[in-house]
Amino acid sequence: MSVWTLGQLPAPEAFTGRVRLDDVGFLDTAGAWYLLRLRAAGVVLEGLSPAHAQLVAA
Questions:
Q1: Report field, pTM of the whole predicted structure over 0.85
Q2: Would you say which domain of life the source belongs to (predicted)?
């Protein structure tokens, strides 16, 4: 899935299980906020680069 804006994403509660993020090349503040919401909803985030992982560190 290629997404460019938060408005194109489903609600975090719509996801279950795991989300693979290996192909994420750019992560802004809004994207990091969305990933934090996914994690709070119980989704496991996999494949984040070390730099991106720092943005969503709790």
A1: no
A2: Bacteria
